[in-house]
Amino acid sequence: AHFNGTNWNSFGNNGGTTGNVSTGSVTWKSVSTFSPFSLGSTDPAENPLPVKLINVKAYQLGSVNKIEWTNLTEIDVEKYEVEKSTDGRQFVSITTTMPKANAGGSESYDATDAQQLPVNFYRVKVTAINGEITYSQIMKLVNNANTGQKISLYPNPVTQQQFTLQMTATAGKYSLRILNATGQLVQSSSFMHAGGTIAKSVDLPTQLQPGIYFVQIIGEEQKFSTTFLLQ
Hints:
Layout: E1 2-3, E2 8-9, E3 16-19, E4 24-27, E5 53-61, E6 64-71, E7 77-85, E8 92-97, E9 107-113, E10 119-128, E11 133-135, E12 139-142, H1 144-147, E13 151-154, E14 162-169, E15 172-179, E16 185-193, E17 196-203, E18 211-218, E19 223-230
Antiparallel strand pairs: 1-2, 3-4, 5-6, 5-17, 6-9, 7-8, 7-10, 10-11, 10-12, 13-14, 14-17, 15-16, 15-18, 18-19
């Protein structure tokens, strides 16, 4: 790879290579002046993209719980597993899903849990072909028919710039607003809700400072608010 002062460009090895995986050399014949070089590779098989899970959520759908997730960079994935827990610490696998494409693109999945409990914890486990394991954030799904709650956060205090938002509401489009202690808007987004109870992961801006924050969920017919402590 050659740096031209602005960008890094791939120029291959038209002068040949020597050695093995431990030592050796790479020659490129088309250089006329001194400039920065580095070894690089664009082979996705040798340089797989990190797993990037987004839109991870769990929600009640009638008599079952649904779990959904998207992998933005699906490549070299052996399998996906949805794991469940009753305490948020000890998890067991309840479903296994094979990858759709493994081509480096975005792929979305869902799974169903027919065993609804008063409190359910879920996470997605991604196992790569090389054995590497990645976990999603833990989703806490509470049966609000039993608790009467409309909105809650887990964990609270928040420690890793990410939390699970759970709400029970009618179907429709909702706005999510996060404000700091002075009332300044620090994050906003919107999402569609199919109705019922949903647990949705929320990523916070990395520059947010520790303190008290307010969460507002605003729909056409319903509005909820709560607070959390960012440590």
